[in-house]
Design brief:
By secondary structure, the protein is α/β, with parallel strands linked by helices. Helices cover 60% and strands 10% of the residues. Helix 6 packs antiparallel against helix 13, helix 7 packs antiparallel against helix 10 and helix 7 runs antiparallel to helix 11. The radius of gyration is 36 Å and the shape is elongated. 35% of the residues are buried.
Amino acid sequence: MKRGDDPARPVGHDPARPVGHDRARPARRDTALRRVAREARPFLRARTGAILRLAGWSLLEFAQTFLSGYGVARALDDGFLAGRPATGLFWLAVAAVAVLPSVLAARGVFGRLADLVEPLRDGLVRRAVARALSGALGRSGDVSTRSLSQVTHQSEIARDGWAGLVLTLRSFVFTAAGAVTGLLALSPALLLIVLPPLVLGSALFLGTLPPMAARQRAYLAADEAYAAHAGDLAASVRDIAAAGTAERTLAESRALAETQLAASRSLARWSAVRVVALAVCGRFPPLLLLLGAPWLLRNGLTPGGLVGALTYLTQALAPAVQALMTMLGTAGGRLVVVLDRFTDAPPPPADEPAPATSADSPPPPRHPARRAPVAELHEVTFAYGPRAHPVLDRLSLAVGAGEHLAVVGPSGSGKSTLAAVLAGTERPTGGAVRWRGRPARPADATSVRVLLPQHAYVFTGTLRDNLRYLRPDARDREIAAMADAVGLDALLSRLGSLDAAVEPDRLSQGERQLVALGRAYLAAPPLLILDEATSRLDPAAETRAELAFAALPGALVVVAHRLGSARRADRTLVMDGPRTRCGTPGELLRTSALYRDLSGLWEPEEPAGLEEPAGLEGPEARRGEEHGIIRSTPPPSPV
């Protein structure tokens, strides 16, 4: 129970209201429309000025709609039927000229439309990319296909749908307002004929919105599932043929296709209901007006007013209603579903609440001799397939704060797999990974650990930007201290300054690794994992970098490729597939035959220089590769 919780109070209860009141008002179901509305309110509130400017340009459309029907009515009643053709022509000219300002207003409308549409698409793309980067840390199965669909296809659906919805809704609001105002000016009794079918059709249409949104969401989910399956299938054709699982794969493809077909058919059935709603709104009002014409004429409606009302219904109101319903029924439904798929990103992890303290309470107990684990593996098993032999088999390991752990073993023994599982970039098939006592979560990764692989990432930009990539607020004096500690001062002197341009192709592999190491040193994460991240450095540069990292308060895990890395560590983990042994270097020399063998065949300490020594040729190199190490000539003496 969290601090401050009352066990007698229901979860989520507002203390300002009685408990019985909570039971009387059950929580409403959180639908896609409500989720999208919550996200839309701050977006629209921030663009109130653009909405008002858009409405200002749309007032011209209101005037054009009002004058179209009213001008026809006045032309008949005050002009042609009254024997004054000039007056009739004048009113017809007024109705015709009223179209011109609305055409000119289109430029202003589309200009303001961009202020509402483009920020939406940009925000959706940023959200999709952020989810992809976060999901890549956890290696979720559909991160690539889903994120690619969101950045390209779904963001464009949202952009086009939002633009069409804004235009159509704006046109309907001002056209309907102009038509209703004109009908009231001609005769209030007209509303008794016109409004009932409009209200009935609108209610029927609105009733189809929730099921249509659900069907549209199901269709998009089925489309994404089939796309993900097709992507996996294309990448695994050879494995499927080798395993003889073609029939099962075809069955899975057929089931996904049938699911997508069923979703599209259900969507089509609800679309038929919308056709009925459109007919009630668009076709019934003119028909009822003609049927009720004798009654309206007996109650004061003029012949010109009747023709003007028909003009409003057929030329303005019915097309606007039909356009709005069509837009909401097609693009609007897709828009809600697509936007809802952008709102389900997991929130950033909340920090654990700090325990309550007071001036009178005693300080918490301290355990200076005990290192709290930064990362833990509990009975972790990992295999690259359901029938593959496990690379890690029920491995338990704890790495404490300030501890330096080296991981050694021949090639293929699982060293990089262990680093990936410990860093959270690979999910174990069994057991648990914990960071700081909590289950490892992809959302926590950037705040807990930094993983440096053998191939360092350096981008085109300044040296300062590359070094501050993981910590943008690092100051120059901190960068200078880092360069001195890690050994980056020679590269800094060669480039000239922190603002010097860095082109990755012009850096050696060792210099790239130094840049990545400096970046990680500035970040000072609680857990730093070096997966052969110093393999291109000479022994002296590697020693300097590792000692600098070991002096930091965080835990250091080094996948070693030289014996010196293992000797410098507090503990060394020897891996030979599922078989592991952990201890100090002295203990392992006595208890591990594999460690003794690796000590005798280890890569020797070479003279200073940033580049690794040239590779060997011939049978000696091949034998070294079989053992998973780089062997020199002559072979070094055993440790």
